[in-house]
Design goal:
globular; alpha+beta; FAD/NAD(P)-binding domain
């Protein structure tokens, strides 16, 4: 089976009142939970949408989607958070740097990070064009560095309020590197990697330069995927005193009354309250949990980060011998017949030593799900046909097939969309920002992938840190002298 997290049952809530409650299974939520616990706050985390768990289908467990991140040191905000949590070495050991392969019908080659292998490999595949291609990729990697000084200054992104926006605009003039774009041509296969590493349908210059450049500098796979990292952070949060519930624990509804926010779980009638609630879930999911009379507050915000497309993954189990010789752990397959023109392929460990899970991810309209299983199966057939152009003898050896759009209960029940591609408004800050951290409801903060979708994984980390800072500040302002209860 695909590498998956070790699933541990979460604890039951140990209190009725907390400093902060975090809801949602996105990485930003569990990171914020761990940071709150490390800083001495009483925190309850309710995953709700089970994104932190691999989904079960038959006797197998599969990752919901590929999880591909830049090298640890190239995401300073994440490295800083891990050092605070004492997880740097642990997470570093679970990260595996892998070369990215480019698969076209008439040529295969590997973009190796080993200088001794890179030159000969490119020369073999590209001949006289090898040197120019190599230089273009290096320039794309270097383009990511142009925005480093801006992020090192730790600006409030996205800015909020009149004075926040005014201050932010003044800051921008000092960082001309923010306007730098990737040098990769629009039709380059490498550029088509972007939807899998950033949650936006039409990436802007900063996304193309920073997210793509960082990823090309050294793609990293985490042992157990996104779910594996989620559980690593959740386990650390528990060690630090947080109450992190089981991955399938859901919020029945959110309670907004007076100076507190609260949640009611499906397990009973108890309402758990806190000074603040942090939502690590998409706004449409969050709004469905808000009391109906208070939902209108989200009407103006909801269209800001709508999604009409998503990345959908098709997982197959097959014998290792059925895979083409030379196929590595990560590849981009040219697929002109598919939306986006590309398939992202990952090869993961299988249920036995002789088996592997081949994970193929493509872009697709979310509306396709309205057609139900027949429409999704038809797309799967198209994906297999595209893969057959480069691996023609693999399909007959498949022993099991699965996709979250059909086989993940949370996805089928519309509790979550695994990897939506958001459409950002024209006025989006730097082309990467969506929702602000302060939600339409006074005691609710947003720390989801919709805050900075154009920054991919780095955006989730920054959203978590921003929400954590604002909650801590809010608690101090509202209750500077109150002694924290332990009941």
């Amino acid at each position: 089976m695909a590498p998956s997290a070790v699933v541990r049952r979460g604890t039951a809530p140990g209190r009725h009142v907390y400093d902060v409650i975090v809801i949602g299974g996105q990485l930003s939520g569990v990171l914020a939970t761990a940071l709150f616990a490390k800083r001495g706050l009483q925190v309850l985390h309710v995953p709700h949408d089970a994104l932190g768990e691999p989904y079960a289908h038959g006797e197998f467990k599969f990752a919901h989607a590929p999880f591909l991140v830049p090298p640890l040191k190239s995401v300073p905000a994440f490295d800083e958070a891990l050092q605070e949590l004492g997880l740097g070495p642990v997470v570093g050991r679970a990260m595996q740097s892998v070369p990215l392969q480019l698969l076209e019908q008439d040529r295969w080659f590997e973009l190796s990070h080993d200088e001794k292998r890179r030159g000969p490999e490119l020369s073999r595949a590209l001949g006289a064009d090898a040197e120019a291609f190599d230089e273009l990729v290096r320039k794309a990697q270097a383009a990511a560095d142009a925005s480093d000084s801006f992020f090192q200054a730790k600006p409030d992104l996205p800015p909020e309020g009149f004075f926040g926006r005014w201050k932010f605009k003044r800051q921008l003039s000092r960082y001309p590197g923010l306007e730098l774009d990737t040098p990769l041509p629009k039709d380059a296969l490498l550029r088509r990697l972007l939807p899998f590493v950033a949650n936006v349908e039409a990436p802007g210059p900063l996304t193309r330069a920073r997210v793509l450049g960082r990823t090309l500098a050294g793609p990293v796979l985490y042992q157990g995927g996104r779910e594996g990292l989620w559980h690593q952070l959740a386990e650390r949060a528990r060690e630090l005193g947080a109450d992190v519930l089981a991955g399938d624990e859901a919020v029945e509804r959110i309670v907004l009354e007076g100076s507190t926010a609260g949640v009611r779980l499906g397990r009973g009638d108890t309402t758990y309250r806190a000074g603040f609630l942090v939502a690590a879930m998409d706004l449409d999911v969050l709004t469905g949990l808000i009391p109906e009379k208070q939902r209108k507050a989200a009407a103006k915000v909801a269209p800001t980060v709508a999604a009409q497309k998503a990345c959908v993954t098709f997982n197959v189990v097959l014998p290792e011998r059925a895979l083409p010789r030379g196929l590595g752990a990560l590849a981009l397959v040219d697929a002109p017949s598919l939306d986006g023109g590309v398939v992202l392929v990952q090869v993961l460990a299988g249920p036995t030593a002789e088996q592997r899970v081949l994970s193929a991810t493509v872009q697709a309209p979310i509306a396709l799900r309205v057609g139900g299983e027949p429409a999704i199966r038809a797309l799967a057939t198209q994906v297999h046909a595209a893969l057959a152009r480069v691996m023609p003898f693999t399909r007959p050896h498949v022993t099991f097939e699965s996709t979250p759009w059909i086989d993940s209960i949370q996805v089928v029940d519309n509790r979550v969309e695994v990897h939506p591609l958001f459409q950002l408004p024209p006025q989006s800050w730097l082309g990467v920002a969506g929702l602000v951290t302060h939600s339409p409801w006074k005691r609710v903060m947003i720390a989801s992938r919709q805050v900075l979708p154009g920054l991919g994984f780095e955006g989730e980390v920054l959203a978590a840190q921003r929400a954590a800072r604002l909650v801590e500040t809010g608690l101090k302002k509202n209750d500077p002298l109150k002694k924290r209860t332990t009941a």
